[in-house]
Specification:
The chain contains 9 helices and no strands. The protein has helices spanning 9-23, 30-37, 41-48, 51-74, 81-97, 106-112, 119-142, 147-169, 174-195. Helix 1 crosses helix 4. It is elongated. This is Transcriptional regulator, TetR family. Residues 29-48 bind DNA.
Length: 196
């Protein structure tokens, strides 16, 4: 008779996610994950997978959690594209300001770690990074930009958003981060005005 798992999977995955987020892929060992989750190495491997598998699970968990929030922020883009983009940035700024969470962004950190990731994990990290651009492009197209403008602003807004996470990790103040957002929103307002 198989024994019942004595841990909560969501709690263990969240603990591993936070550990990867705080330290990055390369600086997180299986022993670190064991300490973070409270599981021994064999339990990690049997229940959560090897380090690469667990990292991909954590990256997907993170991307879904914040992706849902980004999608909700962008939901009004067809009627109020500037409000939607401000709300999109607010998701990041609120996450950055939350003292219970690590600084930065797991997706941005993963993109920077691509040279040390296995090919499969690196490809998954690139794909995850691209999701933000796709959601932004759809929202900006709905907001009235033509395809070329929507592509350009989607790349720009995604890049600025990831930069906010990197800058916050380096200690940039909330006021400076908001100023960066303001420049991007102003540029988008001009493009939308010219388009109208």
């Amino acid at each position: 008779m198989a024994g019942k798992k004595q841990f909560d999977m969501d709690t263990a995955l969240d603990a591993a996610l936070i550990r990867f987020w705080r330290s990055g892929y390369a600086d997180t060992s299986v022993d670190d994950l064991s300490r973070a989750t409270g599981l021994n190495r064999s339990s990690i491997y049997s229940s959560l997978g090897d380090k690469d598998t667990l990292f991909v699970r954590c990256l997907d968990r993170y991307a879904t959690r914040y992706g849902d929030r980004y999608d909700a922020a962008l939901a009004c883009a067809a009627d109020e594209p500037l409000t939607a983009v401000r709300a999109f940035f607010d998701v990041t700024l609120e996450r950055i300001a939350d003292p219970a969470l690590p600084d930065g962004c797991l997706v941005a950190q993963s993109a920077m770690a691509i040279p040390v990731l296995s090919p499969g994990v690196a490809a998954h990290a690139k794909e995850t990074l691209g999701l933000q651009r796709l959601r932004l492009r759809a929202a900006l197209t709905a907001g009235g930009l033509n395809d070329q403008q929507a592509d350009a602003f989607a790349v720009h807004v995604a890049a600025v958003n990831h930069s906010l996470a990197v800058m916050s990790r380096a200690g940039t103040s909330a006021a400076e981060l908001r100023a960066v957002v303001g420049v991007t929103v102003d540029a988008l307002a001009q493009a939308l005005g010219a388009h109208a």
